[in-house]
Amino acid sequence: EVNIPIQKVELYFGGYQLLRIHRQYFAFMEKVSIAHRKPSKDFELFIDNHKLPVGRTYLKKIRKNFAYLFE
Length: 71
Description:
Number of helices: 2
Number of strands: 5
Largest sheet: 3 strands, antiparallel
Shape: globular
């Protein structure tokens, strides 16, 4: 078990396509295949068959830098 605050992980890996997408999740954006809007108006990202939630706080930055995922 690793016990490191998520903010420290973000500082260390933040420049390597590892992007914070939720208060509890990061994603390697090169692995993301698509963004999907759920009926609740929230978004999730797909990596293979795995769904990762996108926090509203992070959505604007993701849409700006990775617009192709939302087409």
